[in-house]
């Protein structure tokens, strides 16, 4: 048997146990320039984004600023639709499903009516071009992205001179900085120009600076009103700068620093009165006072404040010396554990780079987009994708990156009052399955895809989860009105279905799936029931913490008892619908009814074995290969099912070369490690990062479960800095698939309950007790669900959970506890 000795010690000494070779080779590296956008390397500081191509002769920096969206302020809530919604309800409860869908399609047409819109696209600023005459022929080429420092570099030889470029989007100075050097003086000569696909644009030079200006596009019933201004300023050592009408030319310099500022007139979703020129002038003036070394040092320090909180070492192999594109091609047939660690950390890098406090949340493409009309408009799709973007935020110790999403939720709780009132005659607020910079909350893409009033239900789970991880009572008080508004909406819109008298949401859908030919609109889908269950429990628990709103939550408590239970259907599957309508050959990418397994925690191997078996049957039936984000979700599901090898198989499926086609449902990974739907969507990156974490640590089911789904390929490893609910920070080392060392730091104090393999005995000089009953730590409360209904035709075989033990020990806030195998 393994025996673990427990000792209290300082954090510094504890964490040092896990250091050594914990993080190495955190670079994406290549031996050729990018030939298309999916090979370029992403840089970002939360607000500004750049894709770096690395062409020696003509470098392209494709640029984004997070508030450059088409359109103008205004919601998209249709008028006078409540009577039709009422009629759709009646048709559904009468079993006239096709008629209900037809009325939904008529009420909410697939294409936006002339007086409405279905959301605005996120758009590119354009590109900055750095052209080097005579660099057509080059050798000794290398290109990389160092995600430990958030810096991209390009190096090569041309005409006997070694050239180097460094590029970063500064977290400290809020500009993009490019440094050009050569190993021979007077060797740097280039021109600097800009282009933009925006119809309204202007390029000019003034005072030896390059300006690129434009106005965002118009779409549907909205006129483009975002004004953006970009400004590029060069600092030379040696050489000469000359300016023509729309181009800067530098000749014979020893070194050049380019600083790029971009700003817009956006203040908030209803105010476009900011002055972008003034902002750029201020930002550039401050940035230009610093040396390049100072700027780089400040940037790296600001970035590493977040990034260095977590390390992951899964081992190494000769594959890590190869270029990243080759490693992706060979991953399915080669042993390359370090690529998994790099992929995990790349997800954290992307979240830090696309979602900084005070800015906009990460959209479907983070902040990186080179088009005016990107796929799905690169909006915020909230029937899975936006939520997935933020799954790594708490668990991988990036809690601050969650703030932009929370800020957007405050906005949506304002604009969503209109859709709740006008469309449903309800209090509170709601939204459907998409929003944008303007915080729209109406139906998007018509009655087949968009009549899903559950967006607010899912997004608000992030508020409650943030509280569970941080214990921040002030935060909970600040966002309590958002939680309450969501609960008010569902309290008002729940309908009594005729058969069982359950309270259900109608009309709605199980996102994007159907139960009859071309019919998806329905009442009481499993996912809806799970979401409302969580919304109601969140407000009940929040009101208790804040000691307020007792009469209101009493009415919520009455309603929650009338929600439908989960059901197991005739194929031994978790039913997707209120009725047993699941299809045997359904391989749909959305498996929304498994929300209760993950990210929610309503289904558990230890508390609900029948539902776990049914969820597993559903997952097997749907298959593995799908869109990138769907495979990312499946990694998390298989981790929750405690099957590490199947979870790792999904990671291998995802870490395979993405198809070159820009549509379809076979995901994969592009040469730059970005996720393919296809085309590019960033959510799959974040989903896999979260899934890898879930394989190593889970804390949703009343305890901190150590190494719950460790695959055979992760035989030895170590991880530091992962977060568990209740303010615990955890570091783990394992050997031959068994726990070896453990460190727990308690930020909040309280009981720490550990779940470990049954052959692990915990001994030491801290009194540990075998856990009994429910965890006394309030952050580990497990909500009791109804007993599932099981079809008479179901043939469940029985699910046997792994043999584990639970141990409790009391912690003090600020103290660290070390565990060692003796």
UniProtKB/TrEMBL annotation:
Residue ranges of every copy of the Glycosyl hydrolase family 95 N-terminal domain listed in the record: 28-269
Against InterPro entries, the record matches this protein to: 6-hairpin_glycosidase_sf, 6hp_glycosidase-like_sf, AFCA-like_C, Alpha-L-fucosidase, GH95_cat, GH95_N_dom, Glyco_hydro_b
The UniProt entry, under Pfam families, shows: Glyco_hyd_65N_2, Glyco_hydro_95_C, Glyco_hydro_95_cat
Q: Domain Glycosyl hydrolase family 95 catalytic: where?
A: 292-696
Limits of the Alpha fucosidase A-like C-terminal domain: 698-777
The molecule here is called Alpha-L-fucosidase
Organism lineage? Bacteria, Pseudomonadati, Bacteroidota, Flavobacteriia, Flavobacteriales
